[in-house]
Specification:
The protein is mainly α. About 55% of the residues lie in helices and about 5% in strands.
């Protein structure tokens, strides 16, 4: 049987990229639904996006798991301690069980360990969860998120922002695009519900998709996102905005009254969770928006970045809770805050210190110290430079052994059993 997945793969093999794109979008009829061939399609996209690379992430992944956790056995610690690049206020798991959540935690931790130069990717956890929900094995999930974080430059495609400033620019970018392509929707929301509420609403737009849509909609968006990049997310958000405007503009209707009573955030979330159209219709609405291109996003991003450097950009909205007050969310039904998230400091992470044995510090104390270190330092496996038990109490020995290391962490216990220490940035 020649299903849609095989048609898509065949078109890729023949170099017919545009035709394959139309198949994936659903704008060209074919014999099978995307769900029937999703795993095959996604794997083929991964092969295309990493073409020419001889690098295998299989052994690297499990070696890093061993380094980070001291074992390859799955533990709930994986889901409770997450690296700093994850936004702990938005950890969507889409119905994964405890083992699934622990696997997602392990995947993002390994990625963070191997990519210490990537400080902040709020969508990473959610997208990893979606990949795992499609029954893609753990090693292949790691290959996917590695490719999404750093696609080959020859592919000319972007999936993630990788810094706090990049994320802010992404969140700010939708409203100017909406003013250009669905101007009536923006004007209506501002006139009826106020500009401040409207601005805050627009700046949370990535979570319209990843928090509010059911998995059947999100999976179809992911089909196109993996092939076309993050412009698909902008199109999807504009489509949701357009559909919501159509539903809420009747001032005698339930959606309008609900928005007046409960606000845009809550009502829009409810609308998205109860979409009365099919995933295919949502994509048709998204891809019917005319003259919308990747270059539009790139030009706007450059403009916003220049404004940000000139301190002309300002995010609005509620500050989120600190990471100590946040727990990993089990799914879309347990979210306390739908505004954008700005982490106040780096959350606890799992780092390669499980091999360390200290008579002065407990394991929890070691982890607490490691959580305060800069990301670039915390990801490096530490070396014991000096211990009085092993190397004696000579100051000459101490200076000779420590002098070649930097930075260092010094821990001292007094004769009164008091423990103190210091972080030394240079030798």
């Amino acid at each position: 049987i020649m299903g849609e997945g095989s048609v898509f793969c065949r078109l890729l093999d023949e170099g017919k990229w545009k035709e394959a794109k139309l198949i994936m979008r659903g704008t060209t009829e074919s014999g099978a639904s995307p769900e029937q061939q999703r795993e095959v399609n996604w794997r083929r996209i991964l092969e295309v996006r990493t073409a020419g690379s001889k690098f295998s992430s299989f052994s690297l992944y499990w070696d890093t798991v061993q380094t980070c956790y001291g074992t390859t056995t799955l533990s709930n610690v994986s889901s409770s301690r997450l690296p700093g690049c994850v936004d702990t206020n938005h950890c969507l798991s889409y119905g994964l069980d405890q083992a699934g959540k622990a696997t997602v935690g392990r995947l993002v931790t390994v990625l963070a360990y191997n990519s210490p130069d990537v400080p902040f990717i709020p969508l990473l956890y959610s997208i990893t969860s979606v990949l795992l929900k499609q029954n893609i094995c753990e090693e292949d999930c790691y290959s996917f998120i590695t490719m999404l974080v750093a696609p080959p430059s020859s592919q000319n495609i972007s999936y993630f922002t990788q810094s706090k400033s990049g994320w802010d620019i992404l969140c700010l970018a939708l409203k100017p695009l909406a003013q250009k392509y669905v101007k009536g929707s923006v004007s209506f929301l501002e006139s009826e519900f106020g500009q401040e509420a409207s601005d805050e609403f627009f700046q949370s737009w990535p979570w319209w998709i990843f928090e509010n849509l059911e998995l059947k909609f999100l999976s179809r968006v992911m089909d196109c996102y993996l092939y076309e990049g993050h412009k698909v997310l902008f199109r999807t958000a504009l489509a949701l905005l357009k559909l919501f405007h159509k539903a809420v503009q009747d001032k005698k209707g339930d959606w309008y009254n609900s928005t007046k009573k409960d606000g845009i955030h809550k009502t829009f979330a409810s609308y998205c969770k109860n979409l009365n159209i099919s995933p295919e219709d949502l994509l048709k609405t998204a891809f019917k928006i005319p003259r919308f291109s990747r270059s539009d996003i790139q030009k706007l991003a450059v403009k916003l970045e220049m404004e940000a450097k000139a301190n002309k950009l300002q995010r609005v909205g509620r500050r989120t809770k600190s990471n100590e007050e946040l727990s990993v969310d089990g799914g879309p039904d347990n979210r306390a805050n739908t505004s954008f998230s700005t982490p106040q400091h780096r959350p606890s992470g799992t780092y390669p210190i499980h091999h360390l044995v200290s008579e002065l510090l407990s394991k929890d104390q070691l982890m607490s110290i490691w959580d305060e270190l800069p990301e670039r330092i915390a990801s490096v496996k530490p070396t014991l430079a000096y211990s009085s038990n092993e190397h004696g109490v000579s100051l000459t020995t101490f200076f000779n052994r420590v002098d070649k290391y930097e930075p260092t962490i010094m821990v001292i216990r007094t004769t009164n059993k008091e423990v103190f220490g210091a972080y030394c940035s240079t030798s």
